[in-house]
């Protein structure tokens, strides 16, 4: 199965079973290898009340290797690099890493899904890994000057929510059954469309280079 079909399968799965507080869409209809994501800050965390924009970039050998996930909204967290790249074990390539001490079971596995990644990010917001920081300044502030850290998290949360387009409706299937049913109907419509145009993506992921806009490139 090509990378494109795996990506479409993950997308369809999220449409059918949306995640609480997370909205996903293709960044553009002609490039399913890049997703636009809006995520609410979990309750009882410094990010409660916030909404953040992220981009997910899939490699052409997905799911053999994981996608990359980047906060496009301003963000402040020990496990998010200053440029927005998310650093959690599930986004690291398969196999053990002697340098970090991560076990293969903690890193990306081809059997995992996009939903697993997004749930891991929500978990990261609730419980940062202070022992392996991507942003040392955020880690030190969180540890030694927690009041200032919480204030900054609140500031970026308010900025993120203010940037949410009015057209984006973040799903809350845990509390809104009607909304969940609408997502199921949307997924059924996607199934029909997918069956009509999936061939146009079949060759993508079999060695063809994916081109991103300059402002979306990540290292």
UniProtKB/TrEMBL annotation:
Residues 2-162 form the UBC core domain. Pfam families: UQ_con. Keywords: ATP-binding, Nucleotide-binding, Transferase, Ubl conjugation pathway. This is UBC core domain-containing protein. Coiled coil: none annotated. It comes from Entamoeba nuttalli. It comes from the Eukaryota. The keyword Nucleotide-binding applies. The active site is at 87 (glycyl thioester intermediate). InterPro entries: Ub_conjugating_enzyme, UBC, UBQ-conjugating_AS, UBQ-conjugating_enzyme/RWD. The keyword Ribonucleoprotein does not apply. Belongs to the ubiquitin-conjugating enzyme family.
């Amino acid at each position: 199965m090509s990378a494109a079909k795996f990506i479409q399968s993950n997308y369809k799965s999220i449409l059918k079973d949306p995640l609480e507080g997370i909205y996903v869409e293709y960044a553009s209809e002609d490039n399913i290898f890049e997703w636009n994501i809006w995520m609410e800050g979990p309750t009882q965390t410094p990010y409660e009340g916030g909404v953040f924009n992220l981009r997910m970039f899939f490699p052409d050998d997905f799911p053999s290797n994981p996608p990359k996930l980047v906060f496009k909204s301003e963000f402040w967290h020990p496990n998010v690099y200053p440029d927005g790249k998310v650093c959690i074990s599930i986004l690291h390539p398969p196999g053990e890493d002697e340098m970090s001490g991560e076990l293969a079971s903690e890193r990306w596995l081809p059997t995992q899904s996009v939903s697993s990644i997004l749930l891991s990010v929500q978990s990261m917001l609730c419980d940062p890994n202070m022992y392996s920081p991507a942003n040392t300044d955020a880690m030190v502030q969180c540890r030694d000057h927690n009041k200032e850290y919480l204030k900054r998290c609140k500031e970026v949360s308010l900025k993120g929510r203010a940037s949410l387009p009015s057209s984006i409706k973040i799903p809350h299937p845990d509390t809104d059954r009607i909304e969940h049913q609408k997502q199921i109907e949307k997924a059924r419509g996607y199934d029909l469309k997918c069956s009509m145009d999936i061939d146009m993506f079949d060759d993508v992921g079999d060695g063809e280079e994916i081109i991103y806009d300059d402002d979306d490139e990540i290292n």
